[in-house]
Amino acid sequence: MSQAKMQMGLDFSLVADAQDLVAGVDEVGRGPLCGAVVTAAVILDPNRPILGLNDSKKLTEARREKLYDEICEKALSWCIARAEVEEIDELNILHATMLAMQRAVEGLSITPKLAMIDGNRCPKLAMPAEAVVKGDSKVPAIAAASILAKVSRDREMAAFELIYPGYGIGGHKGYPTPVHLEALARLGPTPIHRRSFAPVRQAYELRESLSKMQP
């Protein structure tokens, strides 16, 4: 095994039979109370290895940012896609995530022979797809996709921090932390909050009941 593969610590045997045109697909943002769910699809170039790929959650922010640029430069093809808050509320988070994954794969400039999806479900795609549980720590292309998706979404959350101050969105990235829940109850939901998620729905109902009580 080459030094590059050893350093990655990921399982290249999972993609050995797919003639290298394997798209890794991952998502970020299923659990947050606000913002889009962001997905990415990546086809890596076997002739341009990227050292240090791993599950994006296991990397520092600085390392993710550096790898983001390297993936965009070296990958044969990549695409970042999303499903908006309105789509999440209409479809539910699972179906919205599948839709965003479809968009990411369809946005690739090269059609892969196989799509490897992080998790236990696959979206409907035009090519064979395989679900890989904890794939972002097993398959290099999925790890790369997880990095693109997370960096992209984190940047968006940092921008929303400036648009909707007081919620701490730049820190918790929309996840239901105590700080976020307290701000949601105190300030009410913003346009980027997911109304179909229970804490947001409760905050809407609370504000509606309070407004009805006012003369």
The major sheet is characterized as:
5 strands, mixed
The 3D shape can be described as elongated
Order of strands in the sheet with most strands: 3-2-1-4-5
**Helices and strands: which structural class?**
alpha/beta
Measured on Cα atoms, how large is the radius of gyration?
19 Å
Global mean pLDDT:
91
- Topology pattern, helix = H, strand = E: HEEHEHHEEHHHH
Strand content: 5-15%
Distance between the ends: 74 Å
Estimate percent helicity: 40-55%
- Count of separate DSSP helical elements: 8
The stretches of 5 or more residues where confidence is low (pLDDT under 50) are 1-9, 14-18
Q: Using DSSP, what is the number of strands?
A: 5
Give short descriptive properties of this protein.
alpha/beta, 5-stranded mixed sheet, 5 strands, 44% helix
Structure report:
The chain has 215 residues and is of the alpha/beta class. Strand 1 (22-28) and strand 2 (37-43) form a beta hairpin. The chain has eight helices and five strands; from the N terminus they run H-E-E-H-E-H-H-E-E-H-H-H-H. Helix 2 packs across helix 5 and helix 3 crosses helix 4. The protein has helices at residues 3-8, 61-74, 85-91, 93-106, 140-163, 169-172, 178-187, 198-213; strands at residues 22-28, 37-43, 77-83, 114-118, 129-132. Mean pLDDT is 91; it is low at 1-9 and 14-18. It is 44% helix and 14% strand. The longest helix has 24 residues, at 140-163. Strands 3-2-1-4-5 form a five-stranded mixed sheet.
